[in-house]
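Good morning,

Attaching, inline, the C-alpha cells for the sequence recovery test we're adding to the shared suite. The designed sequence is right after.
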C-alpha cells in the first residue's frame, strides 16, 4: 500500500491536508457555484470520501499502535544491550584478574621448580659425598685389617 512507507508524522500531515482539501473543496465558492451556478456531490461520492477518511483514520491508529510497540521493543533492546555491556565489562575484568592470578601462579611454580632442583642437586652432592666417605672408610678398614 502507498501509506506503508510513510512515517506516522507524514501520515498525520497527509490526513490533515486531505481533510483541509476536502473541506475547502466542499465549502469553496467554486464548489458551491460552478459555471452553471451550483455543484452537487452525490451520496455515493460523499460515502466514498467518508469511507476514505475512515480508512485513513484506521491506518493512522494502526500506525500509532505499531509505533508504540516498536518504541517499547527499542527500549527493551537498549536495556538488554546495556546489561550485556555491563556483563561484558565484568567478564573482561574477571578475565584480567584470572590472567594475573595465572601469571602469579606460574611465577611461583617456576620459583618452586628452581628451589626443588637446587635441593635435588644438594641432596645428590651430599649422597655422593657420603658414598665417597663410606668407600674411603671401607677401603681404609680393609687395608688396616689385611695388614
Amino acid at each position: 500500500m502507498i501509506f506503508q512507507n510513510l512515517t506516522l508524522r507524514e501520515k498525520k500531515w497527509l490526513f490533515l491536508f486531505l481533510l483541509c482539501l476536502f473541506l475547502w473543496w466542499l465549502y469553496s465558492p467554486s464548489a458551491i457555484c460552478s459555471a452553471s451556478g451550483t455543484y452537487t456531490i452525490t451520496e455515493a461520492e460523499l460515502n466514498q470520501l467518508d469511507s476514505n477518511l475512515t480508512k485513513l483514520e484506521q491506518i493512522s491508529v494502526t500506525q500509532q499502535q505499531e509505533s508504540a510497540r516498536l518504541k517499547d521493543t527499542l527500549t527493551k533492546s537498549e536495556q538488554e544491550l546495556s546489561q550485556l555491556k555491563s556483563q561484558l565489562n565484568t567478564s573482561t575484568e574477571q578475565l584480567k584478574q584470572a590472567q594475573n592470578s595465572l601469571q602469579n601462579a606460574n611465577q611461583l611454580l617456576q620459583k618452586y621448580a628452581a628451589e626443588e632442583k637446587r635441593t635435588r642437586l644438594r641432596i645428590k652432592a651430599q649422597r655422593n659425598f657420603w658414598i665417597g666417605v663410606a668407600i674411603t672408610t671401607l677401603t681404609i678398614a680393609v687395608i688396616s685389617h689385611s695388614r
